[in-house]
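Lab notebook page, bench 4
Experiment: in silico fold of construct C2
Operator: M.H.
Input chain length: 131 residues
Purpose: comparison with the prior construct
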Amino acid sequence: MNRIPWDKILSFTAFDAVKLLITALVIVIVTKIQLVNDRLSALLIALPLTSLVAMVWMHSGGQSRERIANHSEGTFWFVLPTLPMFLILPWMLRNGWGFWSALLANCLLTVGFFWLTVIILRRFGVDLMPK
């Protein structure tokens, strides 16, 4: 984790373009559904579509079962600190906060909750951010 392989991260293949189009299509469809039914779009977003699509791309890209398993487990733990945002943001918006200020406040809270989760889980032997 000391050296980030920027050459691998920034390389772009035809398969990456296909992944980009399909992934973007999923997001566009869900946002279009929101125009008609906000509860259905919320249900679709609550499904781990992004994680499932990412795991399909990982498998298609030849990632090992261990890496996919690590990704899945890490996703579980990383979702936890984001959950309060889905209650705090609507409360803020309904109580006079502007959209951008409420969104910024929630991003900062989520970062704080993220690091708190990392610290707490380390005490129980789960290291989400190995050194």
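Observations: The chain has seven helices and no strands. Helices lie at 6-10, 14-36, 38-46, 49-60, 65-79, 85-94, 99-123.
Next step: discuss at group meeting.
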